[in-house]
Amino acid sequence: MDDNKKSSFKGSTIAIIIAVVILLIIIAVVAVFFLNSSKDTNVSDSVVNEVETPEEEENNTTADTNQNVSNTTDTDTSNSAPATLSTDWKNTEFALDGTNYKMYFDYSNLQNAGWTFDLADYGYSDGYILNQNDKVTGTIDLENPNYDADVSVGFTNISSTPKDIMQCQIWSIEVDNTYAKKPVTFNLPGGIHNGSSLEEVVAAYGEPEEDNKYRSDELGYWTYTYQDGYSKYFKLTIYDDKGVTAFEYDVYKN
């Protein structure tokens, strides 16, 4: 082979090698670019999965706020004040734990508020029937899991047909918080409530007749009984240091 041909072959070989090297470099660069793009995409997807979007964060915050408002509302409702009561005790109105009652009222109203008893404790597991105008004295003790106040009631049937005692009305009730560790809130006519002072009681109802007042100096309390003929009796227990701790209504004729 002459020298010109050798020189031409040698130059072609070098050019091919250079082209191949350049191609390999380009392939390597492209491969690195796609590899980095894939990593960025994966990292981006991971962040989206772990971090809430502003919309999700707002929705979750709103849900938490609504839950807190709901809890607060429930608490406020459970402690709500009763509707306005009469100023005259003879209207036989009162409230227990914010619920108003007026004699005579259905026992079911107390039952719905959690005040219950078991007839079997009195020997009548099969029920007890009251005829028209029959009365059971105020010796039925009621219980409520939320309170340990002493609450007792008497039943009457004001309908014209015989009724089971559970379907009858209350004619007598006594509520006593004197020794309760979980007392029940009560409100009475004229703005009197558990804790009202003797002076406030007198301002609301006046002084009862002397025969209707009893004083225990040893225990430091008064009992005041107000009477409307022989039809209605209203008794309060008022301690020197604790104020009104108990009340009793007996309504023989409404």
Question: Can you walk through the features of this model?
Answer:
The protein is of the alpha+beta class and 254 residues long. It has 2 domains: 3-78; 89-251, no CATH class. Helices cover 34% and strands 29% of the residues. The chain has 4 helices and 13 strands. The chain has helices spanning 3-50, 54-78, 107-112, 198-205; strands at residues 93-96, 99-102, 105-106, 129-130, 135-144, 147-156, 163-164, 169-176, 186-187, 213-216, 221-228, 232-239, 243-251. The strands form 3 sheets. Strands 3, 5, 6, 8, 10, 11, 12 and 13 form an 8-stranded antiparallel β-sheet that branches. A hairpin with a 4-residue loop joins strand 10 (213-216) and strand 11 (221-228). The longest helix is centred in the N-terminal third of the chain and has 48 residues, at 3-50. It is elongated and about 135 Å long. The N and C termini lie far apart (141 Å).
Short recap of the structure:
With 254 residues, the protein is α+β, with helices and mostly antiparallel strands. It has helices spanning 3-50, 54-78, 107-112, 198-205, and strands spanning 93-96, 99-102, 105-106, 129-130, 135-144, 147-156, 163-164, 169-176, 186-187, 213-216, 221-228, 232-239, 243-251.
Write the layout of secondary structure elements.
Layout: H1 3-50, H2 54-78, E1 93-96, E2 99-102, E3 105-106, H3 107-112, E4 129-130, E5 135-144, E6 147-156, E7 163-164, E8 169-176, E9 186-187, H4 198-205, E10 213-216, E11 221-228, E12 232-239, E13 243-251
Antiparallel strand pairs: 1-2, 1-9, 3-8, 4-7, 5-6, 6-8, 8-13, 10-11, 11-12, 12-13
